[in-house]
Known about the structure:
The structure holds two protein chains of two kinds.
Chain A: H1 3-32, H2 36-57, H3 62-87, H4 91-112, H5 122-127, H6 147-150, H7 155-173, H8 175-183, H9 185-190, H10 195-217, H11 219-234, H12 240-268, H13 277-295
Chain B: H1 10-14, H2 21-28, H3 34-59, H4 65-71, H5 73-86, H6 94-118, H7 123-146, H8 158-161, H9 169-198, H10 200-205, H11 210-232, H12 237-249, H13 255-279, H14 285-303, H15 309-333, H16 341-349, H17 361-383, H18 387-390, H19 405-415
Amino acid sequence: MGADFVQFSLTPILIGVFASIACALPGNFLVLRRQALIGDAISHVVLPGIVVAFLLTSSVATLPMLAGAAGAAVLAVILIEAIKRLGRIEPGAAMGVTFTTLFAAGVLLLEQSDTSSVHLDVEHALMGNLESLIWLRADGWQSLVDPVALAGLPPELLRIAVVAGLIAVLTVVFWRWLKISTFDAGFAEALGLPTRTIGMGLVIAAAVAAVAAFDAVGSIIVIAMFICPPAAARLMTNRLEAQVWWSVGFAALSAVLGYVLAGYGPLWLGATNAVSAAGMIAAVSGVILGLACLFGPHRARVGVAAEG
Amino acid sequence: MAGGWRPRNWINSRSQAPDLVSPFLEALFLGAGYNAALVAIGAALLGFSAGASGTFLFLRKRALVSDAVAHATLPGVGLAFMAMVWAGGDGRNLVGLLAGSALSAWLGLLVVEWMVRRTRLSEDTAIGAVLSVFFGVGVVLLTIIQTMSTGRQAGLEDFLLGATAGMLFQDAVVIAVGGALAVCATFILRRPMTLVAFDPEFAAANGYDVRRIDLAMMALVLAVTVIGLKLVGLVLIVAMLIIPPVTARFWTEESDKVVWYAGVLGGVAGYVGAAISASAPALPTGPIIVLVSATLFGLSLFFAPARGVAAALIRHRRFQRRVHRRQGLLALARGESILEPYTIRVLSAEGLVRPDGVATDDGRAIAAKIARDERRWDIVREVHQDAGLTGRYDGLTPIEEVFTADEIAEFDRLIGAPRPVGGSA
């Protein structure tokens, strides 16, 4: 745990943790509202958004990328809603039509345009590149209080930390609204709560989290963190407050454990190369969910006694 | 040899301007080379079977299960590659890779079913969990393969988005044969699957084993997914399973037809998409097929008869027109003046009022008839106890459609003789 760790592992782990928590928080409500796959759809349409932003600005600057991705996410949500209403099609199919079409358009645009000079490719979008977000200026733990070294932190870290903080604050501020409208939409409407706006706001918050996390870690982590930690947490408790804390814990654990296993696991096994950290984080979150499915105290449906 | 030889695309070489249409037409009529022709036929067969088998998923409201299946193929591809290399083989044998992907996709499907059955998580959560975790594991395996010393590992990334550019002849044959087999299986299984998709309880009551038919449906979807991996890739194969059925649903209400319409739509998208893709560089097959399919969907969404947006709009306008016409005539009958400009436009188009809103003779006659019908309905509500008939009063249905001439004559007797209506003229 010396200088090497601070230089090469600390920032990716922190970015992973913040990204996971930013996705897991809205994920709790999406899972309870049976909208879990919105996260899947959003993380697919981020690709065309980024490509269009690149074609319009011909730069890979962060702000246009984020704006493009967020725009695509909002467009996708609107399209899904429109197809559902206009065509009277069930939500799952409407979602499937929308995100595959937008993703296909993104891939085509990418192939048609000359993006070979910049680091913009589908694989990167899917798998992320957590390992490259290192802190080169650090030379030990003392760098944490050294302003010169701190200025060399990867910009992704600050961005995802801000977004995670923002999502956390929004969750706390709108807690009662979210809770009531998630569990009893009819009651929420009777109280005069703007349930439709709350639902839309939740999806937009999820999109912001997805876009910020996607920028740093790729879309696999985004989908996995929207669903796995909240789903595992759901099997641990019946109280929403506790579920959110569990999900945050599971998300952070997946990120840390996944990164460590990806970076150091192969070395322990005698191999020489690390494996994909994003993939490993998703895999660890899956293992946690699997354990929760097998042993979680509240895994059975209401009214059905827990088996085994 | 030199004298008699002509370049295959001699039509192009004669024209000065770059010609975009003839390479496409050439590819469309299978003239763009043997491999391209085989890919186009394979894509058409695959599109047909994907559309048809996807219909059953769509009707069962489980369209996105295919997303989990598709993403769950990736670890199987990686493991199959490693196993084949370890066994001293090539590692890129398509049949071997597809067999591996089928196994892991089947495992993913079982995990989805298990989570839904054994825990309180909903199906969409299970789908999302399986697709992200399996995909994550697959990516981990791909990074391991990239560091393997075999040196021939290139090409596994093609399974993400599909690639037909450097496709081997034998791979194209695998896709074409697989697509044909899937079409046959769909044909054989169409009756029980249609029944289960529309009404599982009725199917069970008729002695069908719903669980096994569901399983067969899933196996078919899985087969289509696996065959399509090399062609369109695992991210986009979902589109071939979902978009054609959703499109077909706009065109028919009959269960048997939806399956075949979806198959044909999928087949056309596959064939045309493959042809467009073969006609120029930088047109990846998978995305083009999906976009052709999405175009067909968009056209259907707006222009399909009965269920399309345009048809609904026309229906709405027609309804609006009828309401305005009737309200205007009732106003005339009561001797009130019409203020709404649209009402005046509707009535004057029929010659019932003058442009300034004053009733013509025709207008007064029809207004009198409408006012009389309104009186008749008043009587109906007094004398008739049958709510099924009196309930059909919506202000627009002519009374002659609800009651017989004899009954109406009886109502008229109760009202008394016709009275003239005083217009404002």
